[in-house]
Amino acid sequence: MDIQFLQAIPDLADVPEDQLQWFIDAGELHHYEVGEYLFQKGTPTEHLHIIVSGEFRLSLPQKDGVQLMGDMVPGEITGVLPYSRMKAATGFGEAKVKSSVFCLHRSQFKAMIRDHYELTAAFVHKMTSRVRSFTSFQLQNEKLVSLGKLSAGLAHELNNPASAIVRSAKALQEHLQLVPENFKQVMKIQATEEQIDAVNQLLFSRIGSGTRPELSLMERTEAEDDMADWLEDHGFEDGYEVAETMVDFGFSPDDFEVVTEQIPAEAFPAVIKWIDDNLTTDKMVGEIEEAASRIAELVQSVKGYTHMDRANAIQAVDLHPGLKSTLTMLGHKIKQNQVQIEQNFDPELNPVEGSPGELNQVFTNLIDNALDAMEGKGGTLRLWTRNDGPYVKLDIQDSGSGISEEHIKSIFDPFFTTKEMGKGTGMGLDLVQKIVTRHKGIIEVESEPGKTIFSVCLPAQKTN
Beta strands 65-72 and 56-62: pairing type? Predict the structure, then answer.
């Protein structure tokens, strides 16, 4: 390696030649075969490296494998740098082809700092740029991890009502194919207008009511048995085929006494079948409507969560819609972890001045962390909002295992995480604290086994 090679590196272009020559004399050139590692996760970082020739693949370990970060090519500066606190490698640098690397041992840093100011400044500048790039990557990765969790949960939540629509639509189509034959039997009945009105009143009073009886399993079974027995006693074969639907709409044998009084006995089965056809159709349409409404609610929650329909500028923000939409977005994880939600929202809560999208990031990180703390154990997630003088306060409490006193001091530090590899980047709470601080608020945490509370305090919107 010569001075011209170093001068071609943008970070070193302005360093005096005598300092570059000192750098060359103080270090040494190492060679690597394909598959050899320049560094591996956990190994001590003892050298400053400059890639001279060849190429290295840079990767970070994740829970389910490794994440490729890119390639290091000639001119790339890596390894430990002056004033860096790096002790061990956090990833892997593997040679893709035969490669050469210039290495300077960290024991030479004292002489560099003492005698070669411009060279030291160039490497320090490189270090700050590297920290910014890595922090930006980690923040982006944290957002992508959160987005992945929300997307997976939302996909599951949308799949249930979507499947219900498909299932009910198919059943309705099959059901309607049978209606013409049943209608033919009804058309054979000779009935007066008064008789028809009596049956219609009975039928459509239940269809139009929109209410369904709430019965226990035992009560429902007993009601269906009574209905089936009564129908069969009055000439309707296979009463159990329609008993479930009749009970769903709150019918009892007493209700059908009107039919037996108004309709000839031989026509009774056809009328009951016609009533069942209408009830079944209404029930299936209701199921489709309910499932479609659920999808609309989820879409509305997504819209509210992301604020797609308005600018994400500073504005008056009611915390409750954001909290509720966040709970909806995390609904699958809440169910999966068998967590009970307790909401104690102050109906008179003052609005705060802030960015709705950023505040939703705060809610998402805190609630998602709380759910992780209770993963596989069940538990209770409690949310309180209240006015506290000129502030608005939000408490998020979980019943997980808690945070140790050792860890709680570092909980908001960048890259610090107590989660296993691949489950967290250590940037979530750092991001939360930055957003809260930007909103001129404070966030605090207190924890003991079975009780961890994150408290967010934000200034209420000033009134004129």
Answer: antiparallel
CA distance linking residue 333 with residue 329, whole number of Å:
9
Distances from the Cα of 115 to the Cαs of 23, 107, 273, 438, in angstroms? 11, 14, 100, 41
Instruction: With residue 372 as reference, give the H or E element that holds it.
Output: helix 356-373
The predicted pLDDT at position 48 comes to: 92
Q: What residue ranges in 13-98 does DSSP mark as E strands? A: 28-32, 37-39, 47-53, 56-62, 65-72, 77-79, 92-95
Is there a contact between 461 and 353 (Cβ–Cβ < 8 Å)? Answer: yes
The 3-state DSSP class for residue 165 equals helix
Residue 206: burial class (beta carbons within 10 Å; 0-12, 13-18, 19+): buried
**Number of H-type helices and E-type strands within the chain:** 14, 15
Per-residue model confidence (pLDDT) at position 216: 80
Q: Would you state the structure tokens that stand for residue 220, as one six-digit string?
A: 């429902």
Q: Which pTM does this prediction carry?
A: 0.46
* DSSP-derived secondary structure letter, 350: P
Task: Give me the pLDDT at residue 305, please.
Answer: 57
- 3 state SS of 51: strand
User: Maximum distance among all alpha carbons in the chain?
Assistant: 115
- List, for the chain, all residue ranges whose pLDDT scores fall below the cut of 50: 308-309, 311, 416, 421-427
Backbone φ and ψ for 460, nearest 5 degrees, come out as -70, 155
What is the predicted pLDDT for the residue at 462?
A: 74
Of the candidates 297, 294, 298, 442, the one whose C-alpha atom is nearest the C-alpha of residue 362 is: 442
Q: At what angle do helices 356-373 and 268-306 cross, to 10 degrees?
A: 110
Give the number of other Cβ atoms within 10 Å of residue 33's Cβ: 10
Give yes or no for a contact between 50 and 44, defined as CB atoms under 8 angstroms apart.
no
What residues contact 273, with CB distance under 8 A and at least 6 apart?
182, 185, 236, 242
Give residue-wise pLDDT tens across range 91-100: 899 999 999 9
> b vs e for 361-386, b when ≥16 Cβ sit within 10 Å of the residue's Cβ?
bbbbbbbbbbbbbbeeeebebbbbbe
Contact 325, 304 (CB under 8 A): yes
pLDDT of 311 reads: 46
pLDDT in tens, 333-358: 888 888 999 999 999 999 998 888 78
Neighbouring residues of 259: CB distance < 8 A, sequence distance ≥ 6 = 198, 199, 202, 268, 271, 272
For residues 228 and 243, the answer to whether their CB atoms sit within 8 Å is yes
